[in-house]
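call fold(seq) -> tokens
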Amino acid sequence: MRWVMRGLAVMAIATAATTSGTERSLPGALGRWAHCDAESWHQCGVQVGTQMRSTIAHVVSHDSTTGQLLAWAATRNGTRILAEYEAVHRAIYPDLIEELEGLAVGSLVPFQTLLIVNLVNELVWPAGLAHDGVGRGIRSHKGCSDYHIATDSTAAWGHTEDGEATFINSTYMVTSNVTVGGVAHGYTAFVYPGTLAGWAWGVNAHGVAMSVNALTVPTTKVGLGVAFVARSVLGAASLDDAINRASVKGQASGQHFNLGAPAAPPLLSTPLQISVETSPNGVTLQPISKVAGGRYQHFNQYLHTSGMPRIGDYESSIHRLARASQFSTSSAPPAVPGDIRTVLSDTADERYPIYRSFEHGTHSTFDPYITQTTTLFDLGAGVVSIWAGSTSAASPPDFTFNISH
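ret:
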């Protein structure tokens, strides 16, 4: 089966219809859209790398953390550790290494550099860079917010993709169709430059939708990196398969997956949403429908995994959790998919808002992230809606597409 988003995405790379019937440029990452139609993972990587060559090369060459990790990788200890990470990933994810090698060929960025970009969350610890200067563990390149409704009448969640301000003009979308051994694989996803798709949000041709909340976990031994695990989850053939992929053993650090799928009788009679927290210690699951009230929110701290450190984007996560909880426990809590957009557009907390933007002055040394996209996964309707750069909860989406099976 071909991934139906491909044709739609290609036509909509440059323009989108306005309510008046005229055309306008798509904002933000939606205006930068790569696609591949390939017969190998390597070929797909080459195609995406070629299309996004200047963006990937510019960001990789100007990112300070990447530069420091490259210098560390040239040391005896760094060379050894990076080689160990590469060996682990070649053994478990040979297809993803093949895709990354293709991305290196297409972008003209050395493979080792892109390997480091995709292992940054793990490598900062042995490299001695895991500190932000004010007593907290190093922040991830992203910090995101998710809000779910799972009731008898509504099955939906929303995700803000909050990245560092340096990425504001460099993130992009990828729609992929790869057929390997007669088996078709397709997805559409938001991507950080040089990173494998998955470690943000995406939807695949099997109807599996996902979004990721970054979590900060001290890395003490070589294992699987979050970017590779997330890319694997994006390739899942079903929700159960996605959970199994997220639960792979030997993870070096951790992340949170928001997973969902629309109804697909007879295997799935109703839409399903689930929260999956991963760490080196294992995986914990929280079915959203089992949460009291059917409202659930997740940010950049562990919620249902015990014993994890309170580091990383901790202060902002607590503030965003408190504000979202006010919506959930109000006399009229969010009830329909559009209400999720209201929650994720909220800026009531001036220092640590849910929606982060230059416009509202929320970008600061305390909260360095900027909301790049807001994505609404309406599993009941089978529709994904995307906003890029708009803070108004009432504004129409910049782009929509159907979740297909």
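The longest strand covers residues 155-164.
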